[in-house]
């Protein structure tokens, strides 16, 4: 029983890897179809439609983080002069990309999985295969490209908003001067590289994992629900694992190089 | 032209096909009938690689195809088209673009050029007046017609119809029957129709394969089928609830 579960998990991971490779193969292929329009539509769906949701979420997270950090720090040391630079550093390399990725996994991942799963159970995916159109090229590739681009752009936006809301709450509740708060002296180029890499990979994980579960859907509307749940769990889990490995690799590289 | 040899297929613990043998001749309309869940749709999906057999061989035009990889099925799917049970039109495209997509893909045309050709196919199924309609705006019968037009775009040698009249009112069902018959006879293509609509089968088929318990139970022309004294066949034709016919789930 345990062995079979392990085999299933291994198989799922390897199948997701194969789907990612197949998508990358299509990415480098010359094509005649009008893929740009589909990609732009997906960029709108993934990016523009997520903006408000993300801004509100990270805005509040920024405020809560600063409130809690200042509150605790005030009790222990009473020195809040370094809270701003350290907060900005953490938001850039950790909180910004990861919260963006996790939020997009719930909104975008669920949407992709539900749409593709509905197409699968109504035989539209089979119909695509029958008409000679590759479902990977036609359905996943535009979502993949759009997700990578928009996750990176949204990450920049969410980092900015978290920093701004953090700075405002620091000023209102703890009277920290914005000049003291908005300092970049703790931010290193490694932090920016980490953020870019995380956003780049999260942008790939979300559509690939979600499409995989969407394509695997079976058994009508119950199958669509299962696929959506699996997509959100799988994408979130993938993002958390990816976060760990990128952070670890960057730390090791930084130690070696500097 | 098409040979299924000793096909076995099991889903989980549910055995669907257990040694199915069937040969289909070029140009004929072969109807595959049987009770729900007997494996009619599963059989035809084997032919285009949408389902792979657990055991057995499938031959198409002298070529063994059951072991082919997904990419190797692409040229086969340019010769065999399929009309799906629930039409399977793409939700995000209107009727014209649903038909234009395979043309664009197969012939490498621009969208505008593909649309011009697609309109011709919609005219053949009398759906040109609904070219701008999306699938959810069309009735089931209309969706079936658009689906047939989409399948015709590749000028197939073989057309698979998966329960083309299921869920349609009698008038729409007979119109679809006429469409299938006319298309098959005018283009001389081979048609395989999966159905349990006895009236429809008797009207259009050249031969009938009656599937029962994972095998072909009876194979013959409509006259032979309707005059069969076999109690299982008779019960299927008459549609009576009691009798020797074992239906999955009952």
Short description:
With 258 residues, chain A is mainly α. Chain A has helices spanning 2-27, 35-46, 51-76, 83-121, 124-130, 135-174, 178-181, 189-215, 220-257.
Secondary structure topology:
The complex is a heterodimer of chains A (258) and B (250).
Chain A: H1 2-27, H2 35-46, H3 51-76, H4 83-121, H5 124-130, H6 135-174, H7 178-181, H8 189-215, H9 220-257
Helix pairs in contact in A: 1-6, 1-8, 2-6, 3-4, 3-6, 4-6, 4-8, 4-9, 6-8, 8-9
Chain B: E1 2-11, E2 14-24, E3 29-33, H1 40-47, E4 55-60, E5 63-64, H2 74-77, E6 80-83, H3 95-107, H4 111-124, H5 140-152, E7 158-162, H6 170-187, E8 190-195, H7 198-204, E9 207-212, E10 215-220, H8 222-226, H9 231-238
Helix pairs in contact in B: 3-4, 3-5, 4-5
- The computed structural class of chain B is alpha/beta
Output mean pLDDT of chain B: 89
What integer value in Å does the Rg of chain B equal? Answer: 18 Å
- Taken as a percent bin, the fraction of beta residues of chain A is under 5%
Poorly predicted runs of chain A are none
Number of strands of chain B: 10
Q: In terms of structural class, how would the helical and strand content of chain A be classed? A: mainly alpha
Structural overview:
The complex is a heterodimer of chains A (258) and B (250). With 258 residues, chain A is mainly α. Chain A has one domain. Chain A is 85% helix and 0% strand. Chain A has nine helices and no strands. In chain A, helix 2 packs parallel to helix 6. The longest helix of chain A is centred in the middle third of the chain and has 40 residues, at 135-174. Chain B has helices at 40-47, 74-77, 95-107, 111-124, 140-152, 170-187, 198-204, 222-226, 231-238, and strands spanning 2-11, 14-24, 29-33, 55-60, 63-64, 80-83, 158-162, 190-195, 207-212, 215-220. The two termini of chain B are 36 Å apart. Chain B folds into two domains: 1-79 and 158-164 and 189-250, P-loop containing nucleotide triphosphate hydrolases (Rossmann fold); 81-155, no CATH class. Chain B is globular, with a radius of gyration of 18 Å. Chain B has a six-stranded mixed beta sheet with strand order 6-7-8-3-9-10, sandwiched between helices. The chains are: A mainly alpha (258), B alpha/beta (250). The A-B interface holds A 32-34, 118-119, 122-124, 126-133 and B 45, 48, 50, 74, 77-78, 81-82, 84-86, 88-91, 101-102, 104-106, 108, 111, 150-151, 153-154.
């Amino acid at each position: 029983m345990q062995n079979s579960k392990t085999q299933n998990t291994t198989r799922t991971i390897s199948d997701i890897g194969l789907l990612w490779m197949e998508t990358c193969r299509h990415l480098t292929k010359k094509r005649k179809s009008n893929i740009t329009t589909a990609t732009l539509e997906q960029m709108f769906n993934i990016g523009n439609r997520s903006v408000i949701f993300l801004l509100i979420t990270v805005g509040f997270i920024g405020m809560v983080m600063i409130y809690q950090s200042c509150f605790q720090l005030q009790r222990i040391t009473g020195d809040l002069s370094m809270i701003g630079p350290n907060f900005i550093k953490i938001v850039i390399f950790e909180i910004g990309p990861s919260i963006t990725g996790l939020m997009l996994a719930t909104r975008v991942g669920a949407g992709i999985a539900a749409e593709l799963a509905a197409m699968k159970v109504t035989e539209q995916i089979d119909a695509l295969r029958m008409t000679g159109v590759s479902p990977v090229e036609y359905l996943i590739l535009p979502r993949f490209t759009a997700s990578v681009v928009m996750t990176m752009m949204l990450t920049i936006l969410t980092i900015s908003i978290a920093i701004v809301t953090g700075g405002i709450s620091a000023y209102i509740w703890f009277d920290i001067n914005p000049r003291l708060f908005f300092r970049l002296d703790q931010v290193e180029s490694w932090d920016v590289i980490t953020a870019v890499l995380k956003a780049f990979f999260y942008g790939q994980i979300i559509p690939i994992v979600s499409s995989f579960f969407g394509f695997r859907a079976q058994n009508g509307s119950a199958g669509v629900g299962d696929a959506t749940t699996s997509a959100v769990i799988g994408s979130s889990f993938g993002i958390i694992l990816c976060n760990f490995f990128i952070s670890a690799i960057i730390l090791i590289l930084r130690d070696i190089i500097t | 032209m098409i040979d299924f040899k000793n096909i076995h297929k099991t889903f989980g613990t549910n055995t669907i096909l257990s040694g199915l043998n069937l040969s289909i001749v070029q140009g004929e309309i072969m109807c595959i009938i049987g009770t729900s869940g007997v494996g009619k749709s599963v059989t035809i999906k084997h032919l285009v690689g949408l389902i792979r057999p657990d055991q057995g061989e499938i031959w198409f035009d002298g070529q063994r195809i059951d072991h082919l990889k997904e990419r190797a099925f692409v040229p086969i799917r340019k010769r065999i088209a399929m009309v799906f049970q629930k039409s399977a039109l793409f939700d995000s495209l209107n009727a014209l673009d649903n038909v234009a997509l395979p043309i664009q893909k197969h012939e490498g045309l621009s969208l505008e050029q593909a649309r011009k050709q697609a309109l011709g196919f919609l005219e053949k199924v009398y759906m040109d007046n609904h070219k701008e309609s999306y699938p959810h705006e069309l009735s089931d019968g209309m969706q079936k017609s658009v689906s047939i037009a989409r399948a015709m775009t590749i000028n197939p040698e073989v057309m698979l119809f998966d329960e083309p009249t299921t869920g349609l009112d009698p008038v729409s069902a007979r119109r679809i029957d006429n469409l299938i018959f006319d298309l098959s006879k005018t283009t001389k293509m081979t048609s395989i129709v999966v159905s349990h609509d006895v009236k429809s089968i008797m009207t259009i088929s050249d031969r009938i394969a009656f599937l029962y318990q994972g095998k072909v139970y009876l194979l013959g022309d409509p006259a032979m089928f309707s005059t069969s004294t076999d109690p299982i066949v008779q019960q299927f034709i008459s549609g009576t609830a009691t009798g020797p016919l074992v239906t999955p789930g009952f």
